[in-house]
Write a structure and sequence with these properties.
The protein has 388 residues and is of the alpha/beta class. The protein contains eleven helices and 18 strands. An eight-stranded parallel sheet has the order 9-8-7-6-5-2-1-10. A six-stranded antiparallel sheet has the order 11-12-13-18-15-16, covered by helices on one side. It has a two-stranded antiparallel ribbon with strand order 3-4. α5 crosses α7, α9 runs parallel beside α10 and α9 packs parallel to α11. It is globular and about 70 Å long. The structure holds alpha-D-galactopyranose. Alpha-D-galactopyranose binds next to α4. The site of alpha-D-galactopyranose has 10 residues, from α4.
């Protein structure tokens, strides 16, 4: 891995040092849980309550984000309001509830005229996009107490002739003008290599199309992150999309890989499932403090793929305290033994204490190689600490 890290120029200066998203944002977002029509203020309140009740706030889950389909329309002054039936108390009251739990509140908006649910889910409420009303909408969000904005491209080039860089900058500037600290996450699905230009615009940018709750989707996304590590760092993160843990037919091993690799990738961690129903075993995965510690390591260095032998992969990232995180990832359908030389993961010659992060236990000292058995679709995670 070496000392050179071309992402260094973003570090701490994504948008004139606003100090936001110094580590990847964590929280809950409604989309992967309820999609469009199941979204209600009750679902959002319950998510906030459960983040606290199930110990997730303690390990860093913080932003509660209302995705698409909260919108009810615009009033005679053009000000957005929520769907009156599904959000009878209004957005400011919902933000208060979330803040009252010690958490932060987020919403979804789009740069064109139509949201993605207008296009893909037949959502009938029109004229809710921010085109030409960026300042008004940003101020509305700030007045409600919004702390996070997900700004989603959809098809604003085709339908509204917008340029994505200009459109994302317009909302960035509108958010700044409110003077409220608001984390800004943008999404154009990785179509125009946003890692090359978004670091000075947003705190995070999606790198792929939408994640699904399947191994093919999760593993496919992991594989597409290799090489993007040089574009991410504190205040400016690659976003491989939100977690599908708790959804679909992902096995326990696959859920470990999903969370463990997102942590290696310094990815934003947004849960999107019914937190009250999350089985204890899965809660143990998403709330493992040592795995989250890798995600949230202050150096903010996204892992590199250092070896791939027929789908048996080694990923590594530098951590603070001269430690190194190593993932031994088995993308095959068979049990395997995966091994790496320590020099290959960037560890200078010496003796290291290897900590198994899932077990939260020390293995042993290692000197030349790290070797472990890894089940199909599973990942073993280690933290190597130099022994003086
Ligand atoms: C797009 C985004 C999703 C979600 C939906 C909402 O598909 O990528 O994350 O926000 O829109 O309609």
């Amino acid at each position: 891995m070496g000392d050179e890290h071309p992402g260094d120029h973003y570090r701490g200066h994504p948008h004139g040092d606003d100090g936001l998203a110094g580590t990847p944002p964590m929280g809950w977002n409604s989309w992967n849980q309820v999609g469009c029509y199941g979204l209600t203020e009750g679902v959002v309140r319950e998510a906030a309550d459960e983040i606290v009740a199930r110990g997730l706030a303690e390990v860093g889950y913080e932003y509660v984000v209302v995705d698409d389909c909260w919108q009810g329309g615009r009033d005679e002054d053009g000000v957005l309001f929520p769907d009156p039936e599904r959000f009878p108390s209004g957005m400011a009251a919902l933000a208060d509830h979330v803040h009252g739990r010690g958490l932060r509140f987020g919403v979804y908006a789009v740069p064109g005229r139509e949201t993605c649910a207008n296009f893909y889910d037949g959502y009938p409420v029109r004229d809710i996009g921010s085109i030409g009303r960026e300042r008004l909408d940003a101020q509305t969000f700030a007045d409600w107490g919004v702390d996070y904005l997900k700004y989603d491209w959809c098809r604003a080039d085709e339908t509204d002739g917008l340029d994505r860089v200009e459109a994302f900058i317009a909302m960035r500037d509108a958010l700044r003008a409110t003077e409220r600290p608001i984390v800004y996450g943008i999404s154009e699905y990785g179509d125009r290599e946003p890692w090359r230009w978004a670091g000075s615009i947003a705190h995070l940018w999606r790198t792929t199309h939408d994640i699904r709750a399947s191994w093919e989707s999760v593993n496919g996304i992991i594989q597409r992150q290799a090489g993007l590590e040089r574009f991410s760092g504190p205040g400016a993160w690659n976003d491989p999309d939100m977690l599908q843990v708790g959804n679909g037919a992902l096995t326990t091993a696959e859920q470990r890989t999903h969370v463990g690799m997102w942590a290696m990738l310094a990815a934003p961690l947004f849960l999107g499932t019914d937190l009250a129903a999350l089985p204890g075993e899965v809660l143990g995965i998403v709330a493992n403090p040592e795995v989250i510690g890798v995600d949230q390591d202050p150096l903010g260095r996204q892992a590199s793929l250092v070896a791939d032998r027929g789908g048996l992969q080694v990923w590594a990232r530098a951590l603070t305290e001269e430690a190194i995180a190593v993932a031994l990832l088995n993308t095959t359908d068979q049990h395997a033994v995966i091994s790496t030389g320590l020099t290959d993961v960037g560890a200078p010659a010496g003796t290291y204490l290897a900590r198994d992060l899932w077990a939260q236990d020390y293995l042993s000292t290692v000197e030349t190689d790290l070797t472990a058995e890894v089940g199909p679709h599973d990942v073993r995670l280690f933290r190597l600490l130099p022994v003086r």
